[in-house]
Amino acid sequence: MNTPFLGWAATSPGAALEPIEYDPGTLRPEQVQVKVESCGICHSDLSMLDNAWGNSSYPLVPGHEVIGVIEAVGDQTKGLSVGDRVGLGWFAGSCLACPACLSGRHQLCARAEQIIVGRHGGFADRVRANWEWAIKLPGTLDPASAGPLFCGGITVFGPIHDFGVKPTHRVGVVGIGGLGHLALQFLNKWGCEVTAFSSTPAKADDARKLGAHHVVGSRDRAALRKLAGTFDFILITANATLDWDDYLAALAPDGRLHFVGAVLEPVPVPAFALIGGRKSVSGSPLGSPATVATMLEFCARHQIAPLIETFPMAEVNAALAHLRAGKARHRIVLAR
User: HSE on the CB side for 226, CA within 13 Å?
Assistant: First the structure.
């Protein structure tokens, strides 16, 4: 008989989390079982708790920025052993047989399994995932703060890596929160000239400390218009609706406006705003397992880490309230 997992679950949309025991079933041959040491909290956890995307099922144990130690492995796992410290992000499995997986783009697998969609996640003492998504943590990274790299970090590192951002590029980052504060660090060490766009003037000093060379108000239309034709890449990490025409105009020829923030309202994109400068608008989920590993090596080399606040797992409801109130600076980690 399996030992029950112990987690924190919501029983309905927006409800407070309560302790829960549940039977995880038999460990599948391709899975690893991870004893959770810590788990970051992401805005996506709030969206799932509130059923904002319409794909939540209850009871729901959130959590998809897990750091922990493997305590069991299925007989078809590869490259991992009991005792390895690993991280887990949004994805918990992929089919390994479709064109996306076979070309190394596992995050685009149509049959990908998400760690908190239809299953329980990392606000628990244990969690499971397929071996390909359990990525070993380099020994030089602090496990206490590394959890947010597995969602927030790879969300912004992925497009920098995958869309050919060069050290000679001028890059803008819109939104200096949980995602943006990591993007500034990555891009600075990547060698880019980095501009931070924020609606909060008080964040200007922090943005410069994190790697921004310039700081501009994200709603300052006069300042934006002075930057017309400037940027090779603009990364949207915020979920707010902005003056998209000004951001498209700020792109240089062949520039790309890339969304990783979940902007819920439609983004108007006039065709002529793209055609003349051969500009692009795109978006992406997290990166592949190989890109996650590359990101971790990059963080270890350049001493990049999330800025975190820590709450005990038992104070998860207080931590969620802190995030909902917009007080997190810049990520929250639950420690067991």
Answer: 5
